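Quick note —
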Amino acid sequence: MRFWESVGQWFIDLWNSLLHFLTTGETGDAGDATTISSFLGKVVIALVIFIFFYYVNKFLIFVLKKRISSSRTSQNSKTARLFGISILKAILSVILVVIIFGVLGFSLTGLSTIISAAVVAIGLSLQDVISNFASGIILISTHNFIVGDYISIGSSVEGTVKEVKLLHTQLITFNNIAIFVPNSTLTSKDVTNYNTMEYRRISLPVNVSYDSNPTDVKKVLKYVVSKQSGINRDMPIAVVLDNLDSSSLVFAVRCYVPTAIYWDTLFQLREDVLIELRKRNIEIPYEKLDVNINSNTLPKKPVVAEDIKDEDIYFGEGKGSPVVQRQDDKDILKFLQMAKRQEGKIKRKKLKTPKEPNVAKKKKKTKKETTTK
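Predicted structure written out below.
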């Protein structure tokens, strides 16, 4: 509490001195030791100290990094030293802040209590930061990878390690893009280091047609491998029929090369295999569509419907029965409904036709009777 009390008292004295200067025009009483001139002097001194130590720290860090990069020490020691420089930079910043507080007249007796309380509060809110810091120490101590190694993290991020810093590790991809990975990610996920071993195996698949002779193909591939200069001939070299694909024979060329020239050797081997297979007339299958045109197709016969007469088409007793054009469910229902209606009309006509002649006869008799009378 003494620290905060001294801070508060410092601002109160500064305010009183400013009021006294504005009202009387004097910089302070004769018996007053805390005048505005003394406050301004402390601020100027603190500012000068801050600027001086800031550039001294920056120059010191620059010199240390340059010396580490130009030294002939191992990559392990370089990685550890760069990580130590980042820690030293943070410590120097804290020391600078403490010196400035002392110059301004703040009481530092209770500063340790404040720092301990602040550490607890900050630790709860900055768990990820503390985790990254602790993970950075673990990475430096375990030496799973060093500066210059090519690593991949899971299946998403990969690149060359440029620097292991206090909270993160910087990677440089093939496209010269900088990726900053938190140190906690490197300790919690699977990390593949491609530079740990001195030699790395090339496994190159080669697809050829089923018409090719496997013995001849293996002989050609072995010949191509023997012409490569970077291959380690003391380690196993194999050319095998690896798989029977749906459209090709899959051979595998396996050999070991130094890790430093892995990609160059792989690209050169792939190109030489392609050139040699074409030179030896060995077909390399690829996805394609073959269209076969048959010129001996017979001409279509004409449709014959002349022997069908209209009288042969019969749909019922009604002469007006509709002809079904489509044989789906809706048309069949319509056809049945119309057929029923047509049958109903026919029955009505049959009921009416026998009565009509009787009525006509009666009318004729009535006419004859009237004439005789």
